[in-house]
Amino acid sequence: MTFKIHQLLASAYPFDAITQYSLYLKSTLQSKCMESKIFVPTRNISDKLKSKVIPLNEIHNNISTSDTIMYHYSISSPATQIYKTLNAKKILCYHNITPPEFFLKYSDGFASNLLEGRNELAGLKDITHMAIADSDFNKSELEQMDFKNIYTLPLLLTENFDENLPDKSIVSKMNDGHTNFLFVGRVVPNKNFEGIIKTFAIYHKTINSNSRLTLIGDTNVLPSYYNYLLQLIREYSLQDKVHFTGNVSLNELMAYYKTAHVFLCLSHHEGFCIPVIESMRFKIPVFALSKGAITETLGNSGILIKEENYHKISELINYVLNSPDIQTQIIKKQTERLGFFSKERFDANLKAVLSFLNPKIVQK
Fold it and tell me: Which of 45, 106, 129, 134 has the CA that lies 20 to 30 A from 332?
């Protein structure tokens, strides 16, 4: 008998953490002689991934009552109604939904979508056989909604950093003597880009004028918020020192990581934050605000910031950058922590999850 564990996503885009997680799961399940397909609403499938996923409207022709469906949940989506109606064993993989209040100032529609997503989530507990959370922070939210049989299965590094090379032109441009600040993430309010910009402005104007800030991520999600940030940069007269790149290729991303001296995350809400462990991979000191799941992701590594005082943060960054011994210890701790997110550890944790689902699966 061939075990079948199919996946359901709200969207599929390159470099999206949930998409990459799903693709890795598919590959891992198939390596265990299981069948696994990924279904996504047609309008939310990137052209680059059309060969790797299947349009959602074809799901009923591919699912039987003996199959298992895993729904990656992070936002309100037409996929939710499909999940409800499928006659199969159901697993909910929860990647967190950002609280809507972060978006109210910039988009009522976006906030409403997030609120709807949280309300829909609560209605899935009675039809879900098992739930997976990618952090204990996310697990606690499911527990508060009375989901049962919840496992924590942390995300992992799925990008093929070892099989690619950094973009040479960007490496050359960034290695010009500047101190390079970096943050990676969609340009949305919960990630507190304004806090990063304000901290950098203080550092640049009072400590080290030979510095720059690069912000990597989709700038099209919420134009009103992005425009606010551009105005903030103009107010600080930092147009030449703060740069939004938009989405970048893997080679370009690697170049920015390779040349960064500081990874600064002042996000107010994260369910995990993959760029934190990507920064660990590139041996960049991580400075992060103690909010959401960030504390859990960092573990006992990095520099965890308790107080959102931009002057003190800029001074702390300067102190660390001018203390080679401290930097060495930080990088050592981060490298140790990186092992927690290895593929080997992930596969072992996945085996435990699959064993609960069906003990015969892990015998394959």
Answer: 134
Answer for the pair 265, 287: CB distance below 8 angstroms, yes or no.
yes
Task: Report the distance separating Cα 10 and Cα 240, nearest Å.
Answer: 37
Mind listing the pLDDT tens digit for each residue in 297-309? 999 999 999 999 9
pLDDT for 17 equals 86
> HSE (CB half, 13 Å, CA atoms) of 273?
31
| Whether residue 115 sits in one domain with residue 195 | no
Distance CA 346, CA 308 (A): 33
Q: Tokens representing 287? A: 């400075």
Residue 65 region by backbone torsions, left for phi larger than 0, else alpha for psi between -120 and 50, else beta: alpha
Asked if pLDDT for residue 344 goes beyond 90, the answer is no
CATH of the domain at 350: 3.40.50.2000
d(CA 198, CA 342): 34
The dihedral formed by the CA atoms of 307, 309, 315 and 317, expressed in degrees to the nearest 10: 60
Distance CA 218, CA 46 (A): 14
Q: Which residue type sits at 320? A: V
Range of the domain at 290: 161-341
pTM attached to this predicted model: 0.93
Q: DSSP secondary-structure letter at 363?
A: G
Same domain, 100 and 40: yes
